[in-house]
Amino acid sequence: MFSQNLSNDGVTECCDATFEGVPYNDLNNAARINIGLDIINTLTEYYKFNAPIFIDNAESVSNLIEVPQSQIIRLVVSEQDNTLRVEKENA
């Protein structure tokens, strides 16, 4: 994922996430969010640690992939709401 950068004793990224061969930067917002959740699933399984996950612009995703054992906080733009509204989904 990283290689040594000899010019300044740092590291440079050399790994790009892809989905079905498409680079992460070329994916639409919904695909980026779901790929991010998939990466979080992998890391939480490896490190055995779960944390709350904030998803900004969640209105752009119609189907989020499942993230077991984690609390999802979806931030959604709603033209009809002038003040913050909080909804709780019972699991």
Describe the structure.
It is a single chain. With 91 residues, the chain is of the alpha+beta class. It has one domain (2-74). It has one helix at residues 29-47, and strands at residues 2-5, 10-13, 18-19, 22-23, 53-55, 72-74. The strands form 3 sheets. A two-stranded antiparallel ribbon has the order 1-2. A two-stranded antiparallel ribbon has the order 3-4. A hairpin with a 2-residue loop joins strand 3 and strand 4 (22-23).
Helix content: 10-25%
Order of helices and strands: EEEEHEE
State mean pLDDT (0 to 100 scale).
87
- Count of individual beta strands: 6
Largest sheet: 2 strands, antiparallel
Figure out the total of helices.
1
Shape summary? extended
Q: Tell me the radius of gyration.
A: 17 Å
Widest sheet, order of strands: 1-2
First-residue to last-residue Cα separation: 36 Å
Low-confidence stretches: none
The domain count comes to: 1
Structural class: alpha+beta
The percentage of residues in β strands lies in 15-25%
Short note summarizing the structure:
With 91 residues, the chain is of the alpha+beta class. Helix content is 21%, strand content 20%.
Which helices and strands appear, and what pairs or packs with what?
Elements: E1 2-5, E2 10-13, E3 18-19, E4 22-23, H1 29-47, E5 53-55, E6 72-74
Parallel strand pairs: 5-6
Antiparallel strand pairs: 1-2, 3-4
